[in-house]
């Protein structure tokens, strides 16, 4: 259950970017929680799209949303407490830092940044401002994921041994006709950064620290700068071994996580979101059936926004921020470095001076941006 709102005015929210992800997911989340938060401003360079969003917001119960074409002006005039960002990835770091400097918390679509260097720039802005930036990893927040993580942490399922993480989706040529897609400078990568990141973030959230990665990547179909498929082997700190597949070449689309533990196998099979019914537990011979969660809260932007508002009310760092979110981005960088160099990459080795710290392509001659 959500925590009670703290005394005083409800936090004031603004959205940046009014495309499909904000008009759909973020606005729906705000509407679900309008007893805890007010939407006061929206920013977009496309006036028609902005006006359409404000109309939709009014229908959702937010009648006084001020429209802006400039982020700086909005931050100075509206002074929001929370900024929700749903612009193309290339803008995420700059806009997040600007909001933090204005004293606002941030909830930004994935990827929060295009590199570890940019992520550390945001961490510095957090330190200077006292505000926090979270990345949208909504699959962590459904009741099924919360329950599975609790069972794993408590040892109810026994020691994790083998993990499989699968994001096999399908994107056609028309998908990549959007100018910023498939380009390192604007999207930061291929299905590792834009598609599979949700699923392997959940895998890492469930299993904890990883220690090393060995990966491969390829362009098999699409004429893009970045990959259209990748695979990886991963070793976790507790000794478990896992596999990761990220694809946009798969007509039979699915998202899947399977973790084989000493006492049970836990499986999640879905596509873009999960509820309790998408999780399955199979006990080992002689072991007890693991308990089911008490309630069903689907994974969603609303579930993550609820957790963020709980943290805001408590003045504590929100989930999906700080080191836990950085670890997911570091895992992506490690997959790219391993795939492009052929080396096994260990956790913590990509830092300032490493070309894969500054960009996911690492200036590799076969993968760096086309001139």
UniProtKB/TrEMBL annotation:
Residues 280-299 are annotated as: Disordered. SUPFAM superfamilies: Glyceraldehyde-3-phosphate dehydrogenase-like, C-terminal domain (SSF55347), NAD(P)-binding Rossmann-fold domains (SSF51735). Residues 12-135 form the Gfo/Idh/MocA-like oxidoreductase N-terminal domain. Residues 147-267 form the GFO/IDH/MocA-like oxidoreductase domain. This is Gfo/Idh/MocA family protein. It comes from the Bacteria.
